Amino acid sequence: MISYEFDYTRPDTVEAALDLLDDDSKILAGGHSLIPALKLRLSAPGKLIDIARIPSLKGIKMDGNELVIGAAATHSDILESDLIKQHLPMFAEGAALIGDPMIRHKGTLGGSLAHADPSADWPAMVLAAEGTVVVQSKTGTRSISSDDFFTGFYSTALESGEIITEIRFPIPAEGTKMTYQKFVQPASRFAIVGCAALRHPDGTARVAFTGVADAPFRDTAVENAVGDWSEEALEAAVALTAQGMEFNVDHYASETYRHHLARVYCRKALKALLY
Amino acid sequence: MSNKYIGQSVRRTEDKRYITGKGRYTDDIKLVGMTHASFVRSPYAHARVISIDLSAAQNMPGVVAIFTGDDIKATGIVGVPTGWQVNFKNGDTMKEPPHPLLIATGSTSKHIGDPVAVVIAETYAAAVDASEAVEVEWEELDAVTDPFKAAQEGAALVHADAPGNLAFDWELGNPLSEVDEAIAQSAHVTSLEFVNQRMIPNAIEPRAYIGHYEEHIDKYTLYTSTQNPHLIRLLMCAFVLGLPEHKVRVLGPDVGGGFGSKIFHYTEEALVTWASKQINRPIKWTETRSEAFMLDAHGRDHVTKAEMGFDADGNVQALRIKTYANLGAYLSTFAPAVPTYLHGTLLQGLYTTPKIHIDLCGMFTHTVAVDAYRGAGRPEATYLLERLMDLAALEMGKDPVQLRKQNFIPAFNGVSEPGYQTQVALQYDSGNYQGVLDRGVEMLGYENFRQMQREAAQNGKLLGVGFSTYVEACGIAPSAVVGALGARAGLYESAQVRVQPTGKVSVYSGSHSHGQGHETTFAQVVADKLGIPMEDVDIIHGDSDAVAFGMGTYGSRSLAVGGSAIVKSIEKVLEKGAKIAAHKLECAEGDLEYAEGKWTVKGTDQSVSFGDVALTAYVPHVYPQGLEPGLDFSSFYDPANFTYPFGCHIAVVEVDTETGKVTLKRFIAVDDVGNVVNPMIVDGQIHGGLAQGIGQALLEGAIYDENGQLINGSYMDYAMPRADDLPMFELDRQETPCPHNPLGVKGAGEAGCIGSTPAVVNAVIDALWSGGHPVKDIRMPLTPERVWRAMQS
């Protein structure tokens, strides 16, 4: 297909992008979700504002006791970053499971979070790693905890006129373990179920899922149940997986099976953090 | 003659343009004054057109013309035909309702995407914009998409004049009473109800057409992404538009794959050709990927009950089949032949089964047409037989390899030993079935496998092995035979070998190449037969004005039929060349021998080269009296029989007991496709076929909802096999020559797709039995959830 007609601009700064941003425009980053929507005419913006090459949105850096990933960092940037490998190895592990090399070189972390596909990989990892989404508008910047960011089916706490600029993560303490485990949908290679889990040195955990329900979520019932990480405790935690959720249903996974997979992937993730 | 090229893995000469992006596909062609088409399509699988309002669309910028079904109806054009007639059991002609180019007001759409109007505009974007502005009022009606449900009382009706949605009923084999009797007396009957699901072909190049009428020469040119330009010309001129064939040129430029889906004559081809004359400008239409999913003829889609009876020793006694085959809403070009003469006729398999009967209903449904898709009927037959064979072994506690061996037709070469006459009409040409099975089992290391399987099961891992031995029918086929079976065309091939004055050779073939490597394989044959360098040979195809005629490329027929036509023409070239050579060497023709590109007087060093003879043929100053100048011959080759490749495919899988996910660990394929001209190309064909067959087993399949909406018509939803879904294939070959064509070749294009699917499913079933889950069937594709559920029961 072919999209409706639109204007295309590529500003050099976030400020210039914000000046252009209005109700008739869409932010373009990697474009791997937006461009297909445009071509199928499911989305009809009058203007695309391409932020993928704004220098301040690129890069991965340390800032005090935080690790900062620019919103326009690509999956591949994250996969190859030494800082990520050192401090957030789950992100390198997860990036390698996204799509294929072409997608990884185009798609961005900020784009994935803003789009909030219920099967996307990053949201679960950002939730588990306690990310904070920093957004900028003409009136200033604000920080949104990942716990508050994902609000529903393809919806987030982003307001109109805001652009994600970076995602900040507390640098995990020495001895923190983390993993992302994914059951892949064979066509899209998105997650049918993805589980990101992080184990602090004190034994507390953060466990988040994607693909399971209409939005990614932290599973605090599981987190609270891991206790001493004994086999019994973990099985008890696994049994609590995604309780009370309304499950996604498609031709790859019914409600029953998706719930089963969530438990299986919860177990895989927790067990990966044992040693 | 020389032996320089045949049998060698010569690199494909066509690949340079393909892999450097220099291929020239229909969509690459831009003509002066060219317009663009976009279709207004039914959003419903079954809905009546109440009214069409063009007023808004007509005033959109760039719109050149809009045509509706009413415009087409007014011309008297009825629609596109099918090329094959199957009769009801009672002898009545099958139901063949018209397939209009566009739906007229008051008529109904019969599948999702059925077109109601076409908008032609200066740009594609303008055409799409305006097509959205065409307002159609629809009355949505009930739809049926499943062939079995379509046969039930009260099912929504696709065509008013096809009661019960039955296009035809059909049977083949021994009398049913004899088969019933043999089944009743069998010591063991393995019974299986299954669905051979609907496949979407997914050629990488979507269909694309340019219709170009030129008033000043009163001639039409159609550029089309097709597997058979001449067949399209014949069907379109003679049966759709009523055009004079000599005033229509059909070009099939580079084509990005077809897998069957580009054999058929589609409504859009005829429509752009017709409309081009109405507006006196060229019109291009390239379908979107979404349209390709919806509209390119699909494959398979059988609902089957199969029963195989055995005596107490495991000898097959009888086979009884009842199948509902989905034909879609309209009968596509080969659609009636696929479930009947390309499927029912293969049910002997490689076994000596004495009694066979198939009863089949060809069903109309509110879905796009189902027609030939890589293998076309033979994969369905192989799936049926080979699933039964492995399941019977499990049920009877026998070894699946031994069970096959004891039932195999013994080896026969078709020369000193006769061909094998089946119970289902065909006579196999040559075969050595135990040879391929023995080799496959050897490659597998079968004696160790069962031990490994037991150990794996004890460690919570399920391993399974699945076998599939197949025989198929290629090189379709003697015209007289297919004519008797209902084909409305012959199935020969033509070839012209034009020796240029300098001894270079241009070969004009009716076999279109769209990925198969004809330009290399055919050139290898020509170069060796003439004893000249391959570089001196050019293969020309895909132009109805250049090539005399052609039946096209499908059914793995190109080398067996098209290649044989080339050989016939070469023989004529050499026969005439010998006359010229004899004159030049002042000897009798009988004193000459031809080798390495020259005629030599036997026992002497006197010779004349092929190039010298060619030049003399065109500069005939000193020349045999009465002989015509020139060295240029055409031939038509009509084969004596189908060819019958066969092979053995073995899959080894591991099933994850937690998720049901199947991992294909090994895949062994030992194929016998007769003599091999280019082993690398044959391997490539096998690889591609295996990927598609494995794709059917594990990943692919069209899904319609209750209303006939295609719910997985995108690559986000429809899983195509990718490299990381597949193991490194382990291939070997056996070569049993075809006894009835000059090259001894059988065809390799579909073998991979025919043998592989049941091997994979059998392996999963075997794995589940080893884990204590004795299930008979899991519906394809074997998604993790389906396998997991099978392990829960």
Oligomer: heterodimer
Strand coverage percent of chain A: 25-35%
The amount of helix of chain A comes to 25-40%
Largest sheet of chain B: 7 strands, mixed
**Secondary structure tally: strands of chain A:** 14
- Tell me the strand order in the biggest sheet of chain A: 4-5-10-6-7
Specify the CATH homologous superfamily of the largest domain in chain B: Aldehyde oxidase/xanthine dehydrogenase, molybdopterin binding domain
Number of helices of chain A: 12
Quote the average pLDDT of chain A: 97
Poorly predicted parts of chain A: none
Brief digest:
The complex is a heterodimer of chains A (275) and B (793). By secondary structure, chain A is of the alpha+beta class. Chain A has twelve helices and 14 strands.
Task: Give structural notes.
- Chain A is α+β, with helices and mostly antiparallel strands.
- Chain A folds into three domains: 7-50, Uridine Diphospho-n-acetylenolpyruvylglucosamine Reductase, domain 2 (2-Layer Sandwich); 55-170, Uridine Diphospho-n-acetylenolpyruvylglucosamine Reductase, domain 3, CATH 3.30.465; 177-272, CO dehydrogenase flavoprotein, C-terminal domain (Enolase-like, domain 1).
- In chain A, 32% of the residues lie in helices and 25% in strands.
- Chain A has a five-stranded antiparallel β-sheet with strand order 4-5-10-6-7. A four-stranded antiparallel β-sheet of chain A has the order 11-12-13-14, with helices on both faces. A three-stranded parallel β-sheet of chain A has the order 1-3-2, with no helix packed on it.
- In chain B, 29% of the residues lie in helices and 23% in strands.
- In chain B, strands 3-5-1-12-9-10-11 form a seven-stranded mixed β-sheet, with helices on both faces. A five-stranded mixed β-sheet of chain B has the order 7-15-14-13-8, sandwiched between helices. In chain B, strands 18-26-27-28 form a four-stranded mixed β-sheet, with helices on both faces.
- Chain B folds into three domains: 31-141 and 205-256 and 262-295, Aldehyde Oxidoreductase, domain 3; 391-476 and 642-792, 2-Layer Sandwich (Aldehyde Oxidoreductase, domain 4), CATH 3.30.365; 492-637, Aldehyde Oxidoreductase, domain 4, CATH 3.30.365.
- In chain B, helix 10 packs parallel to helix 19, helix 15 (518-530) packs parallel to helix 16 (558-585) and helix 16 packs across helix 17.
- Chain B is globular.
